[in-house]
Amino acid sequence: MWCQAKVIDQSLTISGLPLHYKVVLPKDYDAAKTYPAILAFPPGGQGADMVQTTLVQNWAGVAQKRGYIVIIPAAPVGRLFHEDGARVFPEFLNKLLADYKIRDNKFHVAGMSNGGISAFFIAASYSSYFTSVTGFPGYLPDASAAQLKVLDGFCIYMHVGELDAPWVGAMQRQAADLQAAGARVNFKIELGEQHVIRALTGDGSARLFNEIEAGCAAKGEKR
Fold it and tell me: Are 140 and 121 in contact (CB under 8 A)?
C-alpha cells in the first residue's frame, strides 16, 4: 500500500520562490546506494493538494516496491512549473542531485495534465538532466522546432483518454511531429477514459514504471 512508503516533506527557497516538495523513498532506503529517480509534476493548480493526490494515485506504492526515489514539487506560490514556476530550475535539480544518489545523474520526468505539460516543458528546457518524459496526459503546447529537436533525444511516453477532447487531437499531432523528427515515441489512446486516466491509478500505475524500465525498446516506439 502507498501508505507504507517513506515520504519526506522538504522546503527551500530558490530565486525568491518558496518551494515545497515531497520525496518518496524506496523500502529499506540506503543513502549510500544509487537509485533511479522520477521527478513527477502534479496536475491542476499544482498545489499541495494535487501533490498529495498524485502521490497516492500514481507514485508512492509502486515506487516503494520497485526501488525508486520520486520527487513531487508543489508550484511555488501558485506559479505553474511551465510558467513562472520554472524559475526554480535548474537549481532545484542540482539540489536533488546533491541530496540523493541518482542513477546516471539523470531523472525520468512525468506528470498528468498541467503536470504533463510541465514535464515536457522542463525536459525541453533542461535536457541534460533527463532521460525519459511521460505525459498522462501531457505534451508541449506550441512547441518550436528547436524544442521538438531537443525532445527527440528522450524516450517519450504519451497517454491520453479516448474521451478527452481536445487533448486527444493535440497529443496525437505532437506525437506525429515528434516521430517525424525521429523521436522514440510510445503514444497510447486509453479506451473509454476521460482526462483522469483511471487505468493508470492504483495498481494500474505500475504501467508507468513498466514503460520507464522498458526504455526506448517499449512496444510502439518510433525509431
Answer: yes
Residue 124 CA to residue 198 CA, distance in Å, equals: 27
Bridge partner list, 185 = 156
Residue with cell 516538495: 21
pTM exceeds 0.85: yes
**Cα–Cα–Cα angle for 72, 193, 159, nearest 5°?**
50
Which of 222, 213, 128 minimizes the C-alpha distance to 174? 222
The residues, ordered by sequence, that sit 6+ positions from 117 with a Cβ below 8 Å of its Cβ are 82, 111, 135, 138, 139, 140, 141
86-107: burial string, b at 16+ Cβ within 10 Å, e else: bbbbeebbebbbeebebeeebb
Which single residue is written with the C-alpha cell 520526468? 109
How many CB atoms sit inside 10 A of residue 114's CB?
Answer: 21
Over residues 39-94, the pLDDT tens digits come to: 999 999 999 999 999 999 999 999 999 999 999 999 999 999 999 999 999 999 99
Q: Are 45 and 77 in contact (CB under 8 A)?
A: no
Strand, coil or helix: 22? strand
Lookup: cell for 89: 530550475
Domains of the chain, CATH where assigned: 2-217 (3.40.50.1820)
- What is d(CA 8, CA 165) in angstroms, rounded to the nearest whole number? 36
> What's 115's DSSP letter?
H
